[in-house]
Hints:
Layout: H1 4-21, H2 34-41, H3 45-57, E1 61-64, E2 68-71, E3 78-81, H4 88-94, E4 99-108, H5 113-119, E5 127-136, E6 139-149, H6 156-159, H7 166-172, E7 178-179, E8 184-188, H8 192-198, E9 206-215, E10 221-230, E11 234-237
Parallel strand pairs: 3-11
Antiparallel strand pairs: 1-2, 4-5, 5-6, 6-10, 7-9, 8-9, 9-10
Helix pairs in contact: 1-3, 2-3
Amino acid sequence: xxxxxxxxxxxxxxxxxxxxxxxxxxxxxxxxxxxxxxxxxxxxxxxxxxxxxxxxxxxxxxxxxxxxxxxxxxxxxxxxxxxxxxxxxxxxxxxxxxxxxxxxxxxxxxxxxxxxxxxxxxxxxxxxxxxxxxxxxxxxxxxxxxxxxxxxxxxxxxxxxxxxxxxxxxxxxxxxxxxxxxxxxxxxxxxxxxxxxxxxxxxxxxxxxxxxxxxxxxxxxxxxxxxxxxxxxxxxxx
Length: 238
């Protein structure tokens, strides 16, 4: 059961979010002080402090030490077109961002019916997952996990740990044009592992995209992909 104190906290959060959505505050505007809201809503100051902490964790506002809280600039969000015919690295570099990728892992997975079916391979094949964490301005923003079959890429177990762009790797193997079938999108709150690697709070949802990458010339399935995006960093174009 929600206590009165927590209920008031939720109601104040809802009121402030409603004011933000209605445009009562412009980007980088200073929000009311803790004292102002304490007097307005007749609640202890600690309640208002928690309200602001939650709004900051949710990505609505930011703090300046000793100066107060401010509304985040939505224009700072990155436009992202969700398509599988061009690499994420190229999209970010073409936009002029200070971008780089870090290879996180390359490891064989246990048999997974869904992934094996997506790759159109037999149960006797081996599949490796390669993870790349994406950064802009030193901030982790996305995790790309690619599942590839060893029968198609014989050296993946040895070279996978050095891959930072799968498209560059595919081009080195003679694949130059890419396509994808339908994508599945869902939103989920981050796991402990995701909160750790993204340095994010549990209140910032993740957008998860699952799709495949196909060689356009032959129709061959090159990979099955799972991408985890921080929802507070991007504006998505589908």
